[in-house]
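Case study 2.
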Amino acid sequence: MEPKEIVGQIPVFRKISPESAAELASKATLRDFGPGEAIIRFGEPGAAFGIVAQGEVEVSAEAADGTRTVLKVLKPFDHFGEVSMMTGEPTTADVFAKTAAKVLMIAHADMSPIVAREPMLTAALAMTISRRLLERERNIKEARLVAEARKAQFDPYGLEKFDVPRGGRILTINCGSSSLKYCLYESRDASVAAKGQIERIGIKGTRHVSTKNGTKSEEALEGAGFVQAFDAVVRCLGGRNGLAGICAVGHRVVHGGTYAQSVIID
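Prediction:
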């Protein structure tokens, strides 16, 4: 699908002039993102308005304690980036490709003059922003209630049925085609001991973002493959000594077989 066709499918653009629609399409760039790849990061200067052309995109926010709330999952012809464009504020959420995705990106610098001369577009974007902010506030409140309920439980992750005497540390791994996510849990504590994500494995711009003991850090792993990525995970978890305290490891496996539910691989 060409940029002009994509722009024509977006409700907020339907009442602008054909000339403005053509100008938007001419300045747009269609980009590919792999699963788990960052499109926009929290706190970055707002730079682009994005339209999902294919796949799914996840908008999420991370709380001070490291928990992450999914604010919205965007599907084809949904859009993002309008809040920072209209307010001039930094981005207020992380936007990641949930699946392989194609996103039409329009730079704010190219779109702002069109918004200024199209009052119907300005009004439509304002209504979209109001609706999004209300949805975001509701989702964050619900996530806080769930977190509080989990903290009130003796066994917050339902792990007591596993043979982990007096509690223990459990590592979860989610390895995708170009990303690696991990989380280290204490089975009797709702807090996360360490977590991280390595993006763009094997391609340009490989980066490791981790949080340990409440401290967030980033490191460049330019061009690193999966072996180097797992080495970085081991370092974050404290090397061999850190691994010695892990009682169980859970690894997410996706395949095209006949299993429809979680199974134990032994």
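Residues 142 and 208 are 29 Å apart (CA to CA).
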